[in-house]
Write a structure and sequence with these properties.
Elements: H1 18-35, H2 46-60, E1 63-64, E2 74-75, E3 81-87, E4 91-94, E5 100-106, E6 112-119, H3 120-124, E7 136-139, H4 140-147, H5 173-183
Parallel strand pairs: 3-5
Antiparallel strand pairs: 1-2, 2-3, 4-7, 5-6
Helix pairs in contact: 1-5
């Protein structure tokens, strides 16, 4: 069994629970938004970033740096420093040029898609101008186009058993239905044993 440096054997597949947890998170978001119409409770910032970091560590066998380390989030098995970005939106922002960059897109159903995996210099040279917040932004669509030019040898390889956790299980279908119902302004009861 392949185990990551920062996890013990009983936690080695903790990333497999992420899709279910993300579905539950969005079910709560839907409930908040149904209770307080006109207010947005979108998970963002550190929460989405941390989810992306643990999933990338699992998928690519990365050793995570301390939380909020400057410029890079992890170390790859080949010794490269890796910046990890996760988004639910249409763009990501970078504060500095990373050595290697992995960008993941997180959906409400817990599905995670690799958007970019390659040299940070390629992305940095294609980012927009520096903004007032100290970040240079690049769109997900541009990242996808750039990814088509990255040779396999310039990517961080997927770990032996590091496939992305699959989409939410059938048990989560009710959670997803609840999210959609809340977005439509309806309410749906979900029993706790459905999780």
């Amino acid at each position: 069994m392949h185990t990551l440096d920062f996890m013990n054997k009983t936690e080695s597949h903790a990333a497999e629970y992420v899709p279910e947890l993300v579905c539950r998170l969005y079910a709560l978001v839907g409930e908040f938004e149904a209770l307080f119409p006109g207010r947005s409770f979108t998970p963002d910032g550190h929460l989405v970033g941390s989810i992306g970091e643990v999933l990338a560590a699992y998928r690519y066998n990365l050793t995570l740096n301390r939380a909020s380390s400057p410029s890079h989030d992890a170390l790859a098995p080949n010794g490269k420093q890796v910046e990890i970005k996760a988004t639910q939106g249409k763009s990501v922002g970078l504060r500095a040029e990373p050595e290697q960059l992995i960008v993941l897109q997180l959906d409400k159903d817990g599905h995670v898609t690799e958007v970019f995996n390659g040299p940070g210099s390629l992305v940095w040279s294609n980012c927009g101008e520096m903004q007032k917040n100290g970040q240079r932004v690049i769109s997900v669509s541009k990242l996808r186009k750039l990814m088509t030019t990255v040779p396999t040898q310039q990517q961080i390889p997927v770990a032996e058993n590091g496939s992305m956790p699959s989409k939410a299980s059938q048990a989560n279908a009710k959670t997803i239905a609840s999210i959609k119902a809340a977005e439509a302004g309806k309410t749906t009861d979900i029993a706790s044993d459905d999780f």
